[in-house]
Amino acid sequence: MNKRSLQPYRYHMKRTFLLLLISSLSLPTLFSVSSASDPQVIRVEQGALSEANVATGSPSFYVNSSIDRVPDNFRSGFGWYSNAWPLTDTVIEGMQLGLSGSWITPNNESEPDSIAQKVCANAAQWVRNDTIKTSNGSRGFDLIQTIEGSLGWWGNQKFKTLMPKFTIGPVQDCYSNQLQGPGWNFFGFVLGEDPTPRNRTGLVQVSNRMLIPPDGLTLEPDFSGAQVGYSWMSLPLPTFNHAYNNMAGENSWTMFINSKNFKGPLVFIAPQFFADGLVKNPVQKGLTLDVKGGRLGSLAAEWASIPFHKYTDTAGTIYTKIPGLEFPVDANGNFALSRDLTAYGSSAISDSFRSALASGGALPRSVNSDGIFSPKLNAQSPGVYQEGKILGTLSSSLAVKTFESGAAYGFSMGGGARLEKIPQYYKEVGSSRIAIKESDAPTALVNAKFGSLMQTSTHVYQEPSWWKQSPAASGDLTADLRDGSQVTYRWYKFVDQPSLQRFEMNAAEKAGIQGAIEKMQKEWNNFSMMKDPTVGSLASFDEGLMVTPPKGLEIGYVPIVVKQKASDKSAVDKALAAIFLAGNNVESIMKAAADKAAADKAAADKSAADKSAADKSAADKSAADKAAAKKPTTITCVKGKVTKKVNAVKPVCPTGYKKK
Hints:
Helix content: 10-25%
Strand content: 25-35%
Oligomer: single chain
Largest sheet: 9 strands, antiparallel
Number of helices: 11
Shape: globular
Radius of gyration: 31 Å
Distance between the termini: 85 Å
């Protein structure tokens, strides 16, 4: 792997930005992804990195860390930190690559496999096939429903940037529906690109301080490897599903975020969302997340589809080029995908939350340590292939390692703080494709491009007509984002937000949930819930997402995005300038991080040395005291006119004598 210095990286960013900015002045559609026109160069849409050692195997590559089984009394919540950085040096059209996250499924470990094979009987064919896999009889319990989503780049996103976006992604009823925001589908998954139908909503906005765009939550550009922390906690919010004959349980899985500029609860999943599948398939009753605790078996980054360019010369020799992949390595030579995985029991926060709602007392402002369990991460490293060929030395350099005493997983690359770049060019030799220098690659392959710093689109995310039935508390407002898009949003009273329409709440239900959310907005404003990461810094969400409630709507209202489209050119140029600035500042940021790590290590070493010296001094004194206690002394004893001296460690006068 190339140990890439930071100074050339600054030059690369500056040159790329200037070229793209000049191009933007004449192109009607900004920064469309381009490729080489040479007919000998073929773009392969997936499989640049694959864990399959056969040419027709899965094109996906999983960077995975399994965990030991979480005890049953710590199934009420899970949280972790994930690194947010620009993995590629350009936006890659069609790439789908998730950074580190997980899949929280219902805890059905004690249920028989015979039930698992029936829970998805009404699902799509691919799900049914996966459910009855003979190698894993309980597979259906992994597919019935999940809470997923993470940082990453998704195939059908419309406004991609170098920085990953944060997605939410709960799944119901055997992948028949997946959500991304309040009222928005997960990039057209299953139900198409229209907003979620009225009867399939379930993701409910809690925060009155951050917007949730349908294309994902944007971040401030940061090339240094800052982190986003997020947790899902099962909270007993007041229920509101009388319209569904109260078929759902009380578990309202609530997402908490910890970032540099946003801390607190963001959304929750309505319990009925997880119970919807019972209508078609009663076998699911009692097996869903609205009534069950969660199960989490690993943290993983799903690199689902990464394209590459392929060139065959006149002699039949195959050359390939993958996107530029780079990693901000810390001062210890490590790159952590995730760290600080935590499992929570109900005593952590849920029990005291229930008591506070019942009594009217204050919500908890800290987590009960008795309700915390920290699973250790375990490394799992598949080989790295491309079309069945061993790809360079990536099986070694991308081997998953754990560090920080099992609290973090990622890649251990040695050396000091830097940006580590994966080789881009490969030549097929026998059963391998070996890494070669750019100067040794065919010119047509070198000229083949993967994309630009930003991807725009003519697509418009637009609210459906039925949203108009929800009374808004404000007119339309707009915000420009770091992805070159503009969102339109309105303020709604919490219970009036469109995603709650289908529940047709009665007065008591409205009062109950509205009161709980108002209490959360008042008392959990800027409440991270999670401890800050043990190592590293926090990332910032896009300042364009941050909002302040209007006067009169300070508590009990939420901002709902009703439209997202490409912004005007000046806003796009401003977003590009922010990317350039972040790239230009990466040297000082990483140097500061390295200096801080060195200073922290020096302080820790000094503290250890001071403690060692203090321990030695105490030990020396103790030894001296013991030695002094064992040293013989002499006393004088008298009996009348007779005098006798006695020398011993503990001298005692003979019978009849007195000590003089």
